[in-house]
Request: fold
Amino acid sequence: MSAKSPFHSDPAVASGIDQLLELLPAGASSDLIGQLLAQVIGLAGKGLNRGELKLLSSSLDDFQRSFEVFGAHRQARKISIFGSARSPVGSPIYDHCLRLSAGAVKRGWMVITGAGPGIMQAGNEGATRERSFGVSIDLPFEASANPFIDGDPKLVHFKYFFSRKLAFVKESDAIVLYPGGFGTLDEGFESLTLLQTGKCDPLPVILVDAPGGSYWPAWERYVRENLLGRGLISPYDRNLYRYTTSPEQALDEIEQFYRCYHSLRYVGDYTILRLKETPSPEMMDLLNTRYADLLVKGSKFELLSEPHPEEANEPEAVRLLPRIGFRYIQRRLGRLRRLIDDLNLAARDNSSQPATDPPRGSGALQLPAGE
Reply:
């Protein structure tokens, strides 16, 4: 191994990697690129067949294109919209999505869809080409992209569903689900699974239907009776989603989620909530009382006076001074969502006391009267 490179045990390979890294532009993450180069070279001795190597290469292509396209719009807040490709133009549900996506743009958001027909097309049409993205996948029975995003530089073509789904969640600040088939349910359950297990940062998931629709109430009944009823999920998991038939209420709920909360960062076993407003001492006392079950024994929620050293490479995070730090058991993510709700409600009401009950559109999924 060369004295300079920690990337490979073969001195000749290590030296070659070092020489390649010297060609990188200033500021490049040479340590991570060196690891990637070593991993790629190491594939030659792993016994992988040609098909497996092609899968790895195509996956890398998927991720690289996605990162490049979304990287140019990193500061923009984005809403991903999922729903059926079979919802016809001019139908009530199509027009409903048009209103929601157009309203999102008026509030300063961008929209991501799967770039296909139906609800995806409505999302791109309402948001306009300028303010929307498409993440398409080639299917034998579906055009590659709808006319409202086709040919746009913000259209990313994926080969694999798994890399496409990762891009959706990675780039989203909120997820809106309209009624749909297997694909929509897959995307919805995938998002909820990532939230439930802490594999993605907290974000709002909004289930939306046209007024009078029964799709999500029936889905919630299934979740309540067959998942919660059999002990297969926690009661707190139902805090991870919301339901509404109003485009405006859906957008209000998304914006409410970010009223005080900004982002989350894990540093080992330490969790940092980055905020837009400093909680009052009374609010901190309330959190330590109400959410003590989320804390490692002996820990408490603390206001931090300065950023953690691990945040030094995040300029936006460093700018945001209000922070709460705590040692989190890292389960009951639905309870963490309620903690965030309480912080947001206190900021909304300019009061240290959060509402006793979730606001309309919050908490467990809201059902029509009579359900």
About this structure: The radius of gyration is 23 Å.
